[in-house]
Amino acid sequence: MFLTLTSTASPATDLGFLLHKHPERVQSFELPVGLAHVYYPEATQERCTVALHVEVDPIALVRGRASFGEHGSGDGFALGQYVNDRPYAASSLLAVALGRVFGSALKGRCPARPDLVGAVLPLEVHVPALPAPGGSEVVERLFAPLGWTVDARVVPLDTQVPRWGDAPYVDARLSGELTLSAALEHLYVLLPVLDGAKHYWVGPEEVDKLVRTGGAWLAGHPERELIARRYLARRPVYVTDALARLDALDDTPPTVATELDPEVDDDVETGDGGAAPTGDPTGASPTVTLARLRAAAVVTALHDVGAHRVVDLGCGEGALLRDLLADPTFTQVLGVDVSARALETTERRLGLDRMPDSVRARLRLRQSSATYRDPELEGQDAVVLMEVVEHVDPERLPDLVRSVFAQARPSAVVVTTPNAEHNVLYTQLAAGAMRHRDHRFEWTRAQFRTWATTTADDHAYAVSFRPVGADHKVHGPPTQLALFTRADPTR
């Protein structure tokens, strides 16, 4: 199993700093299923190539594996566990080796030369035996949208016996100008996608790893559903969870996040992976997403109004509920959504069955609609509508306003919604397109202010506005927040 990565940026040997591997040394690393060797076939100022060579021990692989993924163990062949393509074809094993050997580079860390971390380099990747179900076209569909030029050629099963036809592999060469960490992220996620038969158990933690490592670019990838299905072994619950979480990130394109939101979350999982049931989370460190900034802004607004009893109306799959439960200030938290399936996912993602009793006692989940009166919403300190109003048909908005502001009448209401003016900064959005396929509309700042001010005046609330995310001097912030407070709390 073999992969090379080449930089032609002068001085090309800077690649050694980024990878934390000296070009004049041959290094070997133990893996749960064999050995990984790193060496440099060439290292000059003009061109530097690093090779990752993985020697797989089929016996260790069989003894240690929890699952071979969707294809089982050997295509019905009695010795298939031992006689297969795992030692030769690029697969999830190679992705594990990348994470183990180049983990710091994958996370974008280079203490010795921090100036190199964000450098865009002319890179070339060569994978001589890449599994390609569907042929070279699928390789193009996966890598081309990420900025790679793809040359993937189907190889014959045996050059000496042409009648055997083509092998289910391609000789793949990728070239492009990217940061090294981005290139490694693409390989780390997409090699298992093309493999389709992970050598370790695919559990819910694989959803976390997929979103954590690929979220910055996968959210806007045209083949993200294909990627999620194959990466997660076509397990519907995990795929649904991953796509929902990517939806929450799809308004944070890499170009904007890198330029405007440079903070880095270093609190990531690390692990050694291999054949253990827990997989191989290496924890690539993404920039802080707009989803995280938005949740933090909502929590800050709730603190500012002194809220203790909070309703997350339209809670979806619990994106905000986790933050509310982590803060003991909020003594009663009610998560409400019209979708029973979303609430089931929330229970699983929050781990209600494993939650301490003291925390679990503060949370209730309820199936209900934001557009109908619900007595359970009445008498609360605050109602949150985080990224909810834009999912409501415009003709139903008055119903939502009535149910929240006229009938529930909490002391405060927090509303966040996308700022349509900011959309021009999203390079993956076509002109005039909205950020999510389920959005019924997206407001400009003026439109949002008009709606919020009218709503506040009609129902005896005061309203103030806050930006969420970097506030562009022309296009404004990516998200806009309105904080409503009752003019007469006793009314």
Tertiary shape: elongated
Compute the separation of the termini in Å.
72 Å
Strand and helix order: EHEEEHHHEHEEHHHHHHEHEHHEEHEHEE
Q: Radius of gyration, rounded?
A: 25 Å
Please state roughly what percent of the residues sit in beta strands, choosing from under 5%, 5-15%, 15-25%, 25-35%, 35-45% or over 45%. 15-25%
Strand order of the largest sheet: 2-3-4-1-5-7-6
The total count of helices amounts to 16
- What number is the mean pLDDT? 81
Largest sheet: 7 strands, antiparallel
Number of strands: 14
Question: How would you sum up this structure, described in words?
Answer:
It contains 16 helices and 14 strands. It has 491 residues and is α/β, with parallel strands linked by helices. Helix 8 crosses helix 9. It is elongated.
Quick overview of this protein structure:
With 491 residues, the chain is α/β, with parallel strands linked by helices.
Main traits of this protein?
alpha/beta; seven-stranded mixed beta sheet
